[in-house]
Design a protein that fits this description.
Blueprint: E1 3-7, H1 11-22, E2 26-30, H2 34-43, E3 60-62, H3 65-68, E4 74-77, H4 84-91, E5 100-103, H5 116-123, E6 128-133, H6 138-142, E7 147-153, H7 156-166, E8 171-176, H8 179-201, H9 206-227, H10 231-234, H11 237-248, H12 253-262, H13 267-274, H14 279-293, H15 299-309, H16 314-322
Parallel strand pairs: 1-2, 1-4, 2-3, 4-5, 5-6, 7-8
Antiparallel strand pairs: 6-7
Nicotinamide-adenine-dinucleotide binds near residues 11, 31, 79, 81 and 106.
C-alpha cells in the first residue's frame, strides 16, 4: 500500500483518487478551491464533474497543500494544463528530493511550447517526474469500465513502480520510455478533436470524421517525430488510441466545443457552454507555433487556428482543406521504377 496525494479535484483527479483508493492505497485529494473541498467532504461526490461516483468516507479531502506533500510516496498532478505551472510553483517548496510526481493533464504551454513534464521539472527540479496518459474518460474510469493507458518516466524503475500503483483488473497500464511521445499525443489530439467536433456540428458524416482522424494523426506523427518522439508511441494508446476516443466520444469536451462551433457558436460562446477548460484551444496555438518552429506542414491544425482565432467559417476551412494541392498519402513510400 502506498500513500498518494491527488492534486486537482476535477473529473480526472476525482476518478483517479477513487481508482487508487480502490487499489488499497491511502489517498488524499487536494483542491485549491475551498468550496469544492467543502462540497466533496459533505457529499462524497463531485456532483457537477463526476455525478454518481461516490468517494469513500476514509479518503481525506483538503486544501492544505503543504500537508498533502509532506510524505506521500506519489503525488498525482491532475489540475487542467493551464494551471500546471502555477500549481507546480506552489508545490515546489514542499516537495522533497526524488519525490515521484505523475502528471495526468494534457497540454502544451502557450508561448513557451513546453510540455507539462518540462514545466514541472522546471518549477520543481528536485522531483522525479512521470506522465500517465491514454484513452481514459473519467466518466468511464469512475464507473470501473475497462481502460488502458501508458505510464512513462525518466527511469524504467519509476515507470514500473507506477504501473504497479495504478494497475488493476479494469485499468491496464503499459510502460514506455518515450515521455515526449506520450505527452505530444495527449495534447495534440485535443486540437484534432475540435476539428472532428466541428465537422459533426456542420452535419458532416463518418467519412469526414475518419478523414480528420487519419490525416490528423499524420500531422501529429510528422511533428512528433521532428521533435524527437517515437512513431511507435504516437501510433500507440497515448497517440492514436486517445485521438480515436476524443474524436468519437460524447464525453470529450474538446469535441463538444468543436460541435458547438460547427453549429455557429463563437469560440468564446462554445467555451462558456462547455463550462470546463477546453485545452485544445490552448494547444492549437502551441501546435501552430511548433509546426512553424520545426517547419512541419500541419494543414488541419492551421485551419483550426484560423477558425478559432481569425473568425474563419468552419465550412470554409473544410473546403480549403479539400482543395489543397494534390498530394501522395505517404511521401516515404516510393513508386517502383
Ligand atoms: N476528464 C477526463 O476524462 C480526463 C481524462 C484524462 C486526462 N484528463 C486531463 O486531466 C486534466 C484535468 O482534467 P479534468 O477533466 O479533471 O478537468 P476539470 O475541468 O474537471 O478540472 C477542474 C478542477 O481543476 C482544479 N482547479 C481549478 N482551478 C484551478 C487553479 N486555478 N489552480 C489549480 N487547480 C485548479 C479544481 O479542482 C477543479 O475542479 C486535463 O489536463 C485533462 O486533459 C482528463
Amino acid at each position: 500500500m502506498a500513500k498518494i496525494s491527488v492534486l486537482g479535484a476535477g473529473s480526472w483527479g476525482t476518478a483517479l483518487a477513487l481508482l487508487l483508493s480502490n487499489n488499497g492505497h491511502e489517498v488524499t485529494l487536494w483542491s485549491v478551491i475551498e468550496q469544492e473541498v467543502e462540497m466533496l467532504k459533505e457529499k462524497r461526490e463531485h456532483e457537477s464533474k463526476l455525478p454518481g461516483v461516490k468517494l469513500p468516507e476514509d479518503m481525506e479531502i483538503t486544501t492544505d497543500l503543504e500537508g498533502c506533500l509532506k510524505d506521500p510516496d506519489v503525488a498525482v498532478l491532475a489540475v487542467p494544463s493551464p494551471f500546471t505551472r502555477s500549481t507546480s510553483h506552489s508545490m515546489a517548496p514542499y516537495v522533497r528530493k526524488g519525490q515521484k510526481i505523475v502528471n495526468v493533464a494534457k497540454g502544451i504551454e502557450e508561448g513557451s511550447f513546453m510540455t507539462l513534464s518540462e514545466i514541472i521539472e522546471q518549477e520543481i527540479p528536485q522531483a522525479d517526474v512521470a506522465v500517465l496518459s491514454g484513452p481514459s474518460h473519467a466518466e468511464e474510469v469512475g464507473r470501473g469500465l475497462p481502460t488502458t493507458v501508458c505510464v512513462s518516466a525518466r527511469t524504467q524503475e519509476t515507470a514500473e513502480y507506477l504501473q504497479g500503483i495504478f494497475m488493476n483488473p479494469v485499468f491496464r497500464v503499459y510502460t514506455t520510455p518515450d515521455i515526449l511521445g506520450v505527452e505530444l499525443g495527449g495534447s495534440l489530439k485535443n486540437v484534432i478533436a475540435l476539428a472532428a467536433g466541428t465537422a459533426d456540428g456542420l452535419g458532416y458524416g463518418d467519412n469526414t470524421k475518419a478523414a480528420l482522424i487519419t490525416r490528423g494523426m499524420a500531422e501529429i506523427a510528422r511533428l512528433g517525430v521532428a521533435m524527437g518522439a517515437r512513431l511507435e508511441t504516437l501510433y500507440g494508446l497515448s497517440g492514436i488510441g486517445d485521438l480515436i476516443v476524443t474524436c468519437a466520444s460524447v464525453h470529450s469536451r474538446n469535441r463538444k466545443a468543436g460541435y458547438l462551433m460547427g453549429k455557429g457558436y463563437t469560440m468564446k460562446e462554445a467555451m462558456d457552454e462547455v463550462k470546463m477548460v477546453v485545452e485544445g484551444v490552448y494547444s492549437a496555438k502551441a501546435a501552430k507555433g511548433l509546426s512553424e518552429k520545426y517547419q512541419v506542414e500541419m494543414p488541419i491544425i492551421n485551419e483550426v487556428n484560423k477558425v478559432l482565432f481569425e473568425d474563419k467559417a468552419a465550412s470554409e476551412a473544410v473546403k480549403d482543406l479539400m482543395l489543397r494541392d494534390k498530394k501522395v498519402e505517404n511521401p516515404m513510400l516510393p513508386w517502383e521504377k
